[in-house]
Design a protein that fits this description.
Blueprint (H helix, E strand, L loop, with lengths): L7 E6 L9 H11 L6 E6 L5 H7 L5 E5 L16 H6 L4 E4 L2 H6 L4 H13 L3 E6 L3 H5 L3 H13 L11 E4 L13 H19 L1 H6 L2 E4 L7 H5 L6 E4 L6 H11 L3
Parallel strand pairs: 1-2, 1-8, 2-3, 3-4, 4-5, 5-6, 6-7, 7-8
The protein binds 2-phosphoglycolic acid.
Length: 257
C-alpha cells in the first residue's frame, strides 16, 4: 500500500454463501473486533438477496456495500438480471466485475466485462475488475501479456475522468480458494505491471490514484506481508471474509500505523 496516494480497500466477497439473516450478527462482530481507521475502507460484496438487509445493517458507515455482479444492460426484458441502477438505488457503492468464477462458469468474456464496466460507471458504481491467469498460463510465461490484455480490454472506452472510480483486483486463478496464495513478491510484480499498463493508458498521475488489490487465499496470516507491498492496495477476500475473526484481522493489518 501507499497511503500517500491511495486508500486501502479490504473487500470481502461472500460469493454464494451465508443467508440474509446472518448479516446483522456478522456486522456486529466486525464492529466489536475492529476500530475505525481513516485510510482503510471495508467493503462487503454480498449476494443480491442480502443487499436490502445489508444496507440497513451497514448504515453506520463502517462497511461499504458491494455487489458481486451486474447486468451489462440498463433495463428491459432481461429476465433474472439486476441493473446498475437497481444496485445504486440500494446504496451499493462497489460491484465486482469479471470474477474468474463468472468467466469460467457463466461464460463472461473480456467483451462482456468491458460492457459491465461501462454499465457500472454509467450508474455511479465503482467496478472492482478482476483479472488473473491460470497455473498453465503462468508456467508458459504468459502472465504479463495476458494481464495486459485483460486490463486493456476491460478499460476500453473508459475516459480519463472516470478512471479514478475504477478498482482492479489481481486474482491468480490458481490461488482462488486453494490456500495456495501468491507470494508477496509474485503479487507485487503483477500489481506493478498492472499499474504500468494503466500508466501507459492514462498517465502517471492517474495511474497512482487507481487502487490495485490482490485476491486469492488472502488470510489473517499473509495479509500483512501482502499489504506491505507498494503496489498492493488492499485485498479481495473470499473464504476468510466469511469468518468475522479472520476478516477483522485482515482489516486491522490494513489499519496498522
Ligand atoms: P479466496 O477467494 O479468498 O477464497 O481465495 C478470493 C476471490 O475469489 O475473490
Amino acid at each position: 500500500m501507499n497511503r500517500k496516494y491511495r486508500k486501502v480497500i479490504i473487500a470481502g466477497n461472500w460469493k454464494m454463501n451465508t443467508k440474509p439473516s446472518d448479516v446483522k450478527a456478522f456486522v456486529e462482530k466486525i464492529r466489536d473486533l475492529t476500530v475505525r481507521c481513516k485510510w482503510c475502507e471495508t467493503v462487503i460484496c454480498a449476494p443480491f438477496s442480502h443487499l436490502t438487509v445489508a444496507y440497513r445493517a451497514f448504515w453506520n458507515g463502517r462497511i461499504s456495500l458491494g455487489a458481486q455482479n451486474l447486468s451489462q444492460y440498463a433495463s428491459g426484458a432481461y429476465t433474472g438480471e439486476v441493473s446498475g441502477e437497481m444496485l445504486r438505488d440500494l446504496n451499493v457503492k462497489y460491484v465486482i466485475v469479471g470474477h474468474s468464477e463468472r468467466r469460467q462458469y457463466f461464460g463472461e468474456t473480456d467483451i462482456t466485462v468491458n460492457k459491465k464496466v461501462h454499465a457500472a460507471l454509467d450508474t455511479d458504481l465503482r467496478p472492482i475488475i478482476c483479472v488473473g491467469e491460470t497455473a498453465e498460463q503462468r508456467e508458459m510465461g504468459l502472465t504479463e501479456e495476458l494481464i495486459s490484455y485483460q486490463v486493456r480490454a476491460a478499460l476500453a472506452g473508459v475516459p480519463e475522468e472516470r478512471i479514478r472510480r475504477v478498482v482492479i483486483a489481481y486474482e491468480p486463478i490458481w490461488a482462488i480458494g486453494t490456500g495456495n496464495t501468491a507470494t508477496a513478491q509474485q503479487a507485487q510484480e503483477v500489481n506493478r505491471h498492472i499499474r504500468a499498463v494503466i500508466r501507459g493508458l492514462y498517465g502517471a498521475r492517474l495511474a497512482r490514484a487507481v487502487p490495485i488489490l490482490y485476491g486469492g487465499s488472502m488470510n489473517e496470516s499473509n495479509a500483512e506481508e501482502l499489504l506491505a507491498q507498494p503496489d498492493i492496495d488492499g485485498g479481495l477476500i473470499g473464504g476468510a471474509s466469511l469468518v468475522p475473526e479472520k476478516f477483522s484481522s485482515i482489516i486491522m493489518a490494513a489499519c496498522q500505523e
